[in-house]
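Human:
I keep going back and forth on a fold encoding question. Comparing notes only helps if you start from a blank page. Show me how you would write down a chain together with its backbone fold. Write it directly below this note and I will take it from there.

Assistant:
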Amino acid sequence: MDAPQKRQNKNWKDWMSQLPSHLQKVPLNKLAIPGSHNSFSYSLDPQSQVAPDQSREIQAVVHMFGAPGRDVIHRWSITQNLTVEQQLNSGIRYFDLRISRHSASGKVCFVHGLHGADVIPCLEDIKKFLESHPKEIVILDFNHLYAMEAGHHASLLETMTEIFGNKICPFLNMECLTLEMLWESELQVIILYHHHIVSDNPFFWSGSLIRSPWANSTDISHVLSFLDKHKRENDDKERFFCWQGVLTPNAQTIISHFSGSLKDVLASRLAPFFVTWVKNGKNVNCKHGIFIMDFVEMADFIPTVIDLNY
């Protein structure tokens, strides 16, 4: 059985622990890591109020049309079907987190158009996975934060510290950040938090330590050419780099496909093209970094990214 066949038979729950020894000694940002875009959007509640990441115009439309308006937003805001546990078991190791304090409950929830699950239980699910898979590392990127004041940020950071405890990797020089070092120190969680409150907190990484350019387009060829233009940027030695294989709907897209969904109209069309682009990365300068897309179960995305490491 050749090497590719062996890798196909691997258990993706533990793919990091199965990497060859030479890859355990390279900086983490030089590995190919599969991630998910808007990772927790599977939990969006179609009955919830419109989230503060939406414009006043969208909020006014939903106020006018009620449940039918929320249904449209729901179909065009969901970017993942797999739960966090399913994503982890499938090999996802980077999570894109967008959060907001819910004005009614006061809880911090995931958002993307609408409100989703409470953040805390989902983080506890991640902790359970890590306890069962002690050599797997996850990157949590809190990059869109809404309706939160300083006290809410401080409370969330304190709660995350309590949940993950000594599994949290403090900010380190990227050259030191290898699987070998993380395993020796029993560290499993890197938390990027895009708010100045973490500037004096050594256990959280600044949002400036990841570069994640966004094409913001509905056109497949534009997204692929946009990615091509950034091939040299992922050689940054001090930061993570994220390749976003996503199409982004605009108002015209939604109006033209009013009964459709982001998955059917956009994501399922892009997936095979993006995965082919990822495969071709072996031949050019984009065979490492974080790779994300919508509906990560499509088009053999996860094993294709992991295979770049070989």
In short: Confidence is low (pLDDT under 50) at residues 1-6. Residues 262-280 form the longest helix (19 residues).
